[in-house]
Amino acid sequence: MAEKAKGKMEQAKGKAKEMAGKATGDDRMKAEGRTDQIKGKTREAAGKAEEQARGIKDSLRDRKDS
Questions:
Q1: pLDDT tens-digit profile of 13-64?
Q2: Nearest Cα to 13, choosing from 40, 42, 46, 31?
Q3: Distance CA 54, CA 3 (A)
Q4: Cα dist. 51→2, 3, 18, 21, 27 in Å?
Q5: According to the model, what pLDDT value does residue 1 have?
Q6: CA nearest 2: which of 57, 51, 42, 55?
Q7: How far is CA 41 from CA 2, 21, 33, in A?
Q8: What is the Cα–Cα distance from 11 to 8, expressed in whole angstroms?
Q9: Backbone phi, psi, residue 54, to 5°
């Protein structure tokens, strides 16, 4: 769960940075914002995959114990 939350936060930070870059005409800041958003999406996806893997592992363990 922590990775998903961190990913969402990074996406929000990136969106804010991109908007600030647009407002000030700073192309570098806009690009950094887009990069932060991509990193955040990647981190969020990794967190989701980790949760799914943990769920599968738990369900397999439950079957084995039955």
A1: 999 999 999 999 999 999 999 999 999 999 999 999 998 998 888 787 777 6
A2: 40
A3: 14
A4: 10, 10, 30, 34, 36
A5: 64
A6: 51
A7: 14, 20, 12
A8: 5
A9: -65, -40
Would you state the pLDDT for residue 54? 86
Distances in whole angstroms, Cα of residue 19 to Cα of each of 1, 4, 34, 54: 27, 23, 10, 36
pLDDT reported for residue 46:
94
DSSP symbols for 29-53: HHHHHHHHHHHHHHHHHHHHHHHHH
pTM of the full structure: 0.78
Q: What is the pLDDT of residue 66?
A: 60
CB neighbourhood size of 63 (10 A)? 8
